[in-house]
Structures are given as C-alpha cells and as structure tokens.
C-alpha cells in the first residue's frame, strides 16, 4: 500500500476533488473537504501492547486526539515476522503526515500513538480487532485475523487541522460559526498563497463541497460541532 496505512474501509471517492485540485494547500482546508470518520473511543488501550524503545530526555509535547503527526513506521505480520509495509520506501522516503484519532490510519495505530512525543520510538502489537479484522487487507498482503507489529518513530506533533486555533483562524467575526463568506475568503487567501492560476469555478466547486460535507443542518453555517472541534479544545 502507499501513503499512510489505510483504515479498514477504503477512502471515499469524494475526497478526490480537494486532493487533486489543492495538493499544496494547508491541512486545514483538506480537513474541511474530508470530514473525518471518528475512531471509537471505547476501544481499550490495553488491547494494544506498547513497548517504548527510545524516550527523549525532553518529552514534550505529547500527542493527543486531533493532533497532526509526522512519523515513519514499519509494519510486520506477527505470525512470521514478514514486513508488509515500510513508510521509508514510499514517496521518496518522506515521513507520513496524518491526524491522530480520526480514522486516517487503523484504529490500533490511533491508540498506539497517543501520548507520544517527538523523537520517541515505539514497538506496538495490534490485535486483529483493532487492525483489519476477519476480512484482512488483500491489497496490503495482510491475511484475515492477522496480529500486526509496528515499529514507529515520531518526528513532530503539531496542532491538528480541526483544532480550536484552526477554527478561529477562519472565524473572523468570532461568532463561533463559519459562514460561506468567511470560508470563501479563506479559500481566496490560500489560492493567493499557493500562487497557481485556476479557473474561478474551482473556488465555487470547493466551497460547495465544503458545505455539503460539513453543514449537516443546512443552515448555511458550519458550527463548531459540525466542524468537529475535538473534546480537549473549548470554544
């Protein structure tokens, strides 16, 4: 597989608009275009076995749900030790960026990488129920009911795209909801920063797509709840 280790369900095809048209824009915008699937908080952390291989002398900040992480990781089958994934062989060896706790990676990795700090290395064992379950993942050469082992090295912990800071960056009038005008202005600013020429219809298509995915009650605004600001943040 390429990119981050995928969640159990394949990515929705309607993410393609933002990913194709705006490859250089901030993760903040991509987060609006792709409303995340929440990982279940009820999963027991003790089901994932975590061994800390290296802990930096200064261990801060520690990762939490909603943070944007940058990491390398290798995946192995526990049954025979064979490697099925290596992030260092993907995309010229660049570490992977993903938002923690929203289902961008398998649930076991979302759990395993909580409370982890930059520079920390972990070896984790993930049971099938928190990986690919009974169905396995044929494309990734992962058989059904496979227990997985990952060796992880975390490089960076940043505020995620759906943090309260990100929300406030768009919410210019501080009324705790995002209007079409505010998001339109944000799009224009990002287009200008990106520097590429685009047909005006691109702006309109993306704006419509953002509201389609996030304005659940159809009132013409994206509230903090609809934006999905995480529980550790307060508005």
UniProtKB/TrEMBL annotation:
Residues 158-193, 202-235 form the EF-hand domain. It catalyses: [protein]-peptidylproline (omega=180) = [protein]-peptidylproline (omega=0). This is peptidylprolyl isomerase. Keywords: Calcium, Endoplasmic reticulum, Glycoprotein, Isomerase, Metal-binding, Repeat, Rotamase, Signal. Pfam families: EF-hand_5, FKBP_C. One of its GO terms (molecular function) is calcium ion binding. Its EC number is 5.2.1.8. The keyword Glycoprotein applies. The keyword Glycoprotein applies. Residues 1-39 form the signal peptide. Residues 66-158 form the PPIase FKBP-type domain. It is an enzyme of class 5 (isomerase). GO terms for cellular component: endoplasmic reticulum. The gene is Fkbp7. It comes from the Eukaryota.
């Amino acid at each position: 597989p390429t990119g981050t280790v995928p969640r159990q369900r394949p990515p929705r095809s309607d993410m393609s608009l933002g990913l194709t048209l705006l490859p250089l824009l901030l993760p903040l915008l991509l987060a609006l275009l792709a409303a995340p699937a929440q990982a279940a908080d009820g999963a027991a952390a003790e089901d994932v076995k975590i061994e800390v291989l290296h802990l930096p002398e200064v261990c801060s900040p520690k990762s939490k749900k909603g943070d944007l992480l940058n990491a390398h990781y290798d995946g192995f089958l526990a049954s025979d030790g064979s490697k099925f994934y290596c992030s260092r062989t993907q995309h010229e060896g660049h570490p992977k960026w993903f938002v923690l706790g929203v289902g961008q990676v398998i649930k076991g990795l979302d759990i395993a990488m909580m409370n982890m700090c930059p520079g920390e290395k972990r070896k984790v064992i993930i049971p099938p129920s928190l990986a690919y379950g009974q169905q396995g993942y044929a494309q990734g050469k992962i058989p059904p009911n496979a227990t997985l082992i990952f060796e992880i090295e975390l490089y960076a912990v940043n505020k995620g795209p759906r943090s309260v800071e990100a929300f406030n960056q768009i919410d210019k009038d501080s009324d705790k909801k995002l209007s079409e005008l505010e998001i339109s202005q944000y799009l224009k600013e990002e287009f200008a920063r990106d520097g590429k020429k685009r047909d005006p219809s691109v702006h309109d298509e993306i704006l419509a797509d953002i509201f389609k995915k996030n304005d659940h009650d159809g009132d013409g605004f994206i509230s903090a709840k609809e934006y999905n600001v995480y529980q550790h943040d307060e508005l």
